[in-house]
TrEMBL record:
One of its GO terms (biological process) is amino acid transport. Residues 2-245 form the ABC transporter domain. This is Cell division ATP-binding protein FtsE. Part of the ABC transporter FtsEX involved in cellular division. Important for assembly or stability of the septal ring. SUPFAM superfamilies: ACT-like (SSF55021), P-loop containing nucleoside triphosphate hydrolases (SSF52540).
Amino acid sequence: MISVEGLRKVYRQGGGRTAREVVALDDVTLTVPKGEIFGILGRSGAGKSTLIRCLNLLERPTAGRVVVGGQDLTALDATALRQQRRRIGMVFQHFHLLQSRTVADNVAVPLEILGQDRAQRRRRVAELLDLVGLADRADAYPGQLSGGQKQRVGIARALAAEPDVLLSDEATSALDGETTAAILDLLRDVNARLGVTILMITHEMPVVKAICGSAALLEGGRLVEHGRLADLAADPASALGRALLPARAPMPQGAGAGVLAELTFVDPLAATPLLGLLARELSVAVTLLGGGVELIGGRRVGRFQVGLKGGGSATDPAPILSFLNTHGVRAVLL
Ligand SMILES: Nc1ncnc2c1ncn2[C@@H]1O[C@H](COP(=O)(O)OP(=O)(O)OP(=O)(O)O)[C@@H](O)[C@H]1O
């Protein structure tokens, strides 16, 4: 649904002699499949907002292509671009609602731009407010709403023109924990019911963990990693994976437990018999020292710290690690 190829954005900051160039995006290449909820993580200044503004061409990239639904946005003239932008809805951190308009009239803005008549607009607005759970607040003004309700209006407005893609720029960053969870539930529901592809920009890992199937990490304008959440979490070398499944409390010293290792696997139920196999085939005793199982990207991912003893492990753990790795368990020595 979204394909970004070699995206580069260079800003000029300052003027005259002190002018300097800032590379906000550097050769970013990314594909987001239809129906996916995709998270873009990164610290402040990593280039997240620039990426989202380049995705709908609010900002023109210095180089590279942005293809949405098969249409190369970077190749379009202004009129064609306005048409295509309707396929992309935007949700903002600070909502950007018109304070002098009611909830219903805020949601109707994109429909007015589309030229729909009053009856069509009224029908569609009622549908949208129902979808976001605000049917009873149609005549309220934004100033009379809570933050979570304002964001529901923002989401209804973003969906009004039936977009294929929703771009969410820190949509929950101004909300408390409970409200964040409710808004994420709503976005998940919108994704499941309408099939809208959602790209979420956030600096909060819990947001990604709660809702995304895949994610990417931006650092200094470069995309340093991306993939499916469960695969990232199962990869001990992945920075995103480490953040998804951080180390637990300090591990107790496994006195007499043998060589210490960390085992990571997707779907622990399928992997568990392997520990029995280790005992039978390599005569290795496995002592469980720590770890746990979490639901990440809709899949169960386990990470356990273990002691491995016997089977020659005291001197050479390589055969055990290689046995585990060939059976789909990522095993590293601690
Ligand atoms: N309009 C602009 N003019 C000049 N430089 C800019 C402009 N917009 C962004 N930048 C610079 O580009 C870099 C990336 O900024 P961007 O706002 O995309 O980061 P971000 O990851 O969204 O950060 P935050 O989470 O703080 O919003 C920063 O160094 C920033 O100073």
